[in-house]
Amino acid sequence: MRSYRTSQWVWRACWLVAGLLAVGFLAVFFAAPAIHLIVKGFIDEEGHPTLAVMAQTFQSSRTWRIIRFTLGQASLGTLLCLVLGLFGAHLLYRVSWPGRTLVRALVSVPFVLPTVVVGVAFRTLLASNGRLGFLGLDGSWQAITAALVFFNYSVVVRTVGSTWAQLDPRRADAARALGAGPLRVWRTVTLPALAPAIASAASVVFLFCASAFGIVQVLGGTQYSTLETEIYTQTVEFLDLPTASSLAVVQLAVTGLCLFLSGRAQRRLQRSLGSASPGPLRFRGRRDGLPVVVTALVVVVLLLAPVLTLVERSFQRDGVWSMANYRALMSPGDGSGMVISVWQTLINSLTTAVWATLLAVGLGAVVALLLSRRPTGRWGRAGLSIGDAAFMLPLGVSAVTVGFGFLITLDRPPLDLRTSPVLVPIAQAMVAIPLVTRVLLPPLRGIDPRQQEAAAALGAPPWRVLGTIDLPVLARGLGLAIGFAFSTSLGEFGATSFLSRPDRMTLPVAIGRLISRPGAENYGMAMAASVLLAGMTVVVMGIAERLRPPEVTSW
């Protein structure tokens, strides 16, 4: 009996240590920079509390123009994603037809592409010599919006489509049998059932549009700025940290609101879902004609055209087919301002991604195991709910804000990491940990607690219950978690733009540097590097998706 109690105390101590380790990492590398960032916006240069900095920032017409553009383009991008995505969700998840799985995978590719690659692809497509150059949209706000829709279209399709696939079609059939027309059936039956999923998707898409950095940085240039790009500009170019901090406070408020609304919608969605539907509907010819036309146009014009144009132009130099752009990656390039070759930045990206993935998956697995516990006490359940929300918070904070927070916080003892090579992997891991947790947690929460109780009743110690029940389930989602973490790190641009050193530059930062410099050689190298980065990301996520267990879903 005494040995049993001792083992229980040891086991609880192990969970406590694991929890303190995870909470400590969150506190040091997320909470402290975020709090420091907020406080920085309310103190003057001498360190005295004041509202003058915040007031001065918001008295500027430029600040309000940036806020209006950020919210306006995010709203427009979200609206277009919803309108186009609903047609895609119906066709790809509600209707059964040959080739549906292949098109689903194709639609999901843009979301895993690095944002800087998306920006380069659209700039190549819409340039004066591009396939759609005759539209005159190069450097316009319409180009930014189109790129945001390209990036976030699959979020709506997968979020709404997975819910639509579970709706029982007999409710709509009954409404039609009672004389309701197609529009009335959609308005009174289907739309209310999909409302929580639509709200959840809209919140996430608005968050991604409002916090887009690489796309706006590449396509907007100096003419269009969002809160993300302005924080970067005020910090790197003007060295105005108080103004950047004030703007970061606004960005935190916007992203926090989006994350709150998304969480509420997700809870409503979980409560509203009932039993699964009898299965997808058969293709119904003309009745499904409009979704077919809209989705085909989206796939061909919006999704395939930018990527295929980027690949095509990367193999051309001065209008001639050539491998010159790829051979040039072995050197820094003329006038690029880089001190290392682009090929070396690729090696730096892979090395950084490995370390960031190890850190993100390791801590994400610990967090997922902690959050999957089922405490019986009220305080335990409350603590678990708070912990769940706290570890999801980094998902709602932009990478630029994370990088800026690191820059102004981790610059003095005992954590002066400005010159340390570990700073970039830590920042990238902080961005990836919520994604890893979202992948690993649902299967763990799906474990029947009676299995664990039966094993304990048969005399299995707690560590054996964990090893024989929890860890095998955790391992089933590990491949997808590794894929998300690695691809997130590989394409991370916002935080790394603040933190990477010239001699340790990563590939996305190098692409951003090349695309901002004049010269055909620099632009050709940027296109070739973007193709390599996109190819590696797609391969990584393709392998991860093949390892994905059926019950794990992602955006």
From TrEMBL:
One of its GO terms (biological process) is transmembrane transport. Keywords: Cell inner membrane, Cell membrane, Membrane, Transmembrane, Transmembrane helix, Transport. It holds the Pfam family BPD_transp_1. The gene is modB. It is found in: Cell inner membrane; Cell membrane. Residues 67-262, 346-544 form the ABC transmembrane type-1 domain. The keyword Isomerase does not apply. One of its GO terms (cellular component) is plasma membrane. Belongs to the binding-protein-dependent transport system permease family. It is a multi-pass membrane protein. SUPFAM superfamilies: MetI-like. The keyword Chloroplast does not apply. Signal peptide: none annotated. It comes from the Bacteria. Coiled coil: none annotated. Its main location: membrane. The chain crosses the membrane at residues 12-39, 74-93, 105-127, 139-161, 193-219, 239-261, 290-311, 353-371, 391-410, 422-441, 523-544. This is Molybdenum transport system permease protein modB.
